[in-house]
Amino acid sequence: MYYNSTRNSGVKITAAEAIVQGISLDGGLFLPCKIPALSMEKIAGLGDIRYSKRAAFIFSKYLTDFTEEEIRYCTESAYNDKSFDSENIVEMENIAEGVYLLELWRGPTCAFKDMALQILPYLLSVSAKKININKEIVILTATSGDTGKAALDGFKDVDGTKIIVFYPDEGVSAIQKLQMTTQDGDNVAVCGVRGNFDDCQSGVKALFTDLEVNKLLEEKGMVFSSANSINWGRLLPQIVYYVSSYALLVKNGDIKAGEKINIAVPTGNFGNILAAYLAMEMGIPVNKFICASNKNNVLTDFIKTGVYDKNREFFTTLSPSMDILISSNLERLLYIMCGRDDTLVKEWFDKLAKDGRYEVTDTLKAKLAESFYGGFCDDEQTKETIKEIYDKYSYTLDTHTAAAVRVYEDYKAETGDCLKTVIASTASPYKFGNSVIEAITSEPLPAATDEFAVIDKLFKLSGMSVPQSLSELKNKKVRFDTVIGKDELQAYVFKTINS
Ligand SMILES: *Cc1c(COP(=O)(O)O)cnc(C)c1O
Question: Which residues are marked as active site?
Answer without folding.
Answer: 113
